[in-house]
C-alpha cells in the first residue's frame, strides 16, 4: 500500500483531510475526518491502478469517523500509455488542491461577510439572498480595498493547526479514541465524541481571537501580526492583553455552545458523507461493471465521489447549524470592543454592544427583536460560497476529463 504523503494526498491524489478539519470556510473551529478513504495498491498493469472501495486508513491529522465497513470491490482504473500514470497522479493532486484552495482561500470573503452579518444586530438588511451580499462585497472592496475581504485568513489556519494538534495530544495521553474501528460500540463512540468536544473547548479562546480578526473593520484596526490570535487567545485565558468591557462573557459560559456546535457539526457531516458515499459507490459500481464504461469515466468515478460527499456533508451541516452558529458568534464577540463594517451600506462602522447573559438569553433576544430570520443573517454568503465551490469542482472535472481524453 502506498503510504500517505505528508501533504495529505495519497498516490491517487485523494485528499485525506476532511473539510471539517480544513474548512475555515464555515467552520474553522471544527475538526473531523472523512468517512471513508480509498487505498491504492501497486498497479498490476503499467499505467493502471487498482482501487479498493470502502477500505479505511487513518486520514492525515484526523480520527476515523463514525464507523462503517465497505466492500473490497477492485477495479482497474487509469489511462494506459507513456506518462499516463504520472498524469493521473498530477491530475488527482490538482483536483484535491483545487477543492482545498476553494474551501480555504477563494471562499474566505464569503466567510468574512457571513460572520459580520451574523454578529450585526443593528442590521436592517438580513442578506438572506446572494444578490445583496454581492453588492455589499463590491462596496467594501471599493471603499477599503480587496484586503478587507481576506482579513483574518491567516488566523483561521492557525486555529486549524491548534485544533488538530490538540486532538492528537489528547488522544495520545488519554484512552479517548481518535479513530473508530469497524467493530465500534457505544462506549467508543462516546469517547470519540468527547475527544472532539474537548478539542473544541481547548481551542476556544484562539477561535474567539480569530473570529475578532475576521469581523473587525479594516478601517480602524492596525496591521495584525501572524501570531496575534495566539497571543490574544492566551491573554483571554489568563485575563491579560487587550482590555475588554464588563459585558465580556467568561469562557465557562462559552464552553457548552462551543462544544455543542463542534460535535453536532462533526456528527451531521459524518452521517451525510457516509450516506452520499454509499449511494455514489453503489451507482459507480454498476457503471464500472458495464462494458461501455470508459477509462476516462472510471478515473472520474475514482476521484470525484469523495469530493462530492465532502461537499454535501459540509453544506448540510452548515445549513442545519446556521442558527446555532449565529448565536455562538454573538456570544464570542460580546464585550470584546469589536467594531465591524456596516453591512447595510458597505461603508461606515458599527460597534458591537450586546448584553446577552448566555446562550438561552441570546436565542430569546434574537427571536424577540429580529425574528426567526435573524438567526439566518448573512445566509446569502453561504449560497455564494457553495455555488463557487461547485463551479470550481465542475471546471476542474472538465479540465481533467479533457486531459485524460487527449492522453488516451
Automatic annotation (TrEMBL):
Protein location: Mitochondrion outer membrane
Region Disordered, residue ranges: 1-68
Membrane-related topology note: Multi-pass membrane protein
One Pfam family from the record: Mito_carr
Highest taxon of source: Eukaryota
Compositional bias per record (Polar residues), positions renumbered to this chain: 28-40
GO cellular component term of the entry, any: mitochondrial outer membrane
A Gene Ontology biological process term: axon development
Key words of the record: Membrane, Mitochondrion, Mitochondrion outer membrane, Repeat, Transmembrane, Transmembrane helix, Transport
Recorded family membership: Belongs to the mitochondrial carrier (TC 2.A.29) family.
This protein's name: Solute carrier family 25 member 46
UniProt gene name: SLC25A46
Amino acid at each position: 500500500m502506498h503510504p500517505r504523503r505528508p501533504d495529505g494526498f495519497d498516490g491517487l491524489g485523494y485528499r485525506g483531510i476532511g473539510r471539517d478539519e480544513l474548512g475555515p470556510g464555515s467552520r474553522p473551529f471544527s475538526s473531523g475526518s472523512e468517512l471513508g478513504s480509498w487505498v491504492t495498491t501497486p498497479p498490476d498493469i503499467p499505467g493502471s491502478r487498482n482501487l479498493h472501495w470502502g477500505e479505511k486508513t487513518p486520514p492525515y491529522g484526523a480520527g476515523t469517523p463514525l464507523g462503517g465497513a465497505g466492500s473490497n470491490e477492485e477495479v482497474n482504473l487509469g489511462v494506459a500509455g507513456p506518462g499516463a500514470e504520472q498524469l493521473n497522479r498530477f491530475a488527482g493532486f490538482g483536483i484535491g488542491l483545487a477543492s482545498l484552495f476553494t474551501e480555504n482561500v477563494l471562499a474566505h470573503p464569503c466567510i468574512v461577510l457571513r460572520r459580520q452579518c451574523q454578529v450585526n444586530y443593528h442590521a436592517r438588511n438580513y442578506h438572506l439572498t446572494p444578490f445583496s451580499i454581492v453588492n455589499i462585497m463590491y462596496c467594501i472592496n471599493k471603499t477599503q480595498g480587496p484586503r478587507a475581504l481576506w482579513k483574518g485568513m491567516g488566523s483561521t489556519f492557525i486555529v486549524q493547526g491548534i485544533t488538530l494538534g490538540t486532538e492528537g495530544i489528547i488522544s495520545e495521553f488519554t484512552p479517548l479514541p481518535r479513530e473508530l474501528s469497524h467493530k465500534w460500540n457505544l462506549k467508543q463512540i462516546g469517547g470519540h465524541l468527547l475527544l472532539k468536544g474537548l478539542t473544541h473547548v481547548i481551542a476556544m479562546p484562539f477561535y474567539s481571537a480569530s473570529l475578532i480578526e475576521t469581523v473587525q473593520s479594516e478601517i480602524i484596526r492596525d496591521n495584525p501580526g501572524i501570531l496575534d490570535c495566539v497571543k490574544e487567545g492566551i491573554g483571554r485565558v489568563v485575563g491579560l492583553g487587550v482590555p475588554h468591557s464588563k459585558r465580556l462573557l467568561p469562557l465557562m459560559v462559552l464552553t457548552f455552545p462551543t462544544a455543542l456546535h463542534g460535535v453536532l457539526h462533526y456528527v451531521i457531516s459524518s452521517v451525510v458523507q457516509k450516506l452520499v458515499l454509499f449511494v455514489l459507490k453503489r451507482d459507480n459500481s454498476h457503471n464500472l461493471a458495464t462494458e461501455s464504461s470508459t477509462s476516462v469515466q472510471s478515473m472520474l468515478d475514482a476521484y470525484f465521489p469523495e469530493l462530492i460527499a465532502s461537499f454535501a456533508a459540509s453544506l448540510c451541516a452548515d445549513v442545519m447549524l446556521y442558527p446555532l452558529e449565529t448565536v455562538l458568534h454573538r456570544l464570542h464577540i460580546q464585550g470584546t470592543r469589536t467594531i465591524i463594517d456596516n453591512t447595510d451600506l458597505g461603508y461606515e462602522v458599527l460597534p458591537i454592544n450586546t448584553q446577552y447573559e448566555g446562550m438561552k438569553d441570546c436565542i430569546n433576544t434574537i427571536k424577540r427583536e429580529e425574528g426567526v430570520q435573524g438567526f439566518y443573517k448573512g445566509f446569502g454568503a453561504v449560497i455564494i460560497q457553495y455555488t463557487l465551490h461547485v463551479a470550481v469542482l465542475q471546471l476542474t472535472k472538465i479540465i481533467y476529463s479533457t486531459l485524460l481524453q487527449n492522453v488516451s
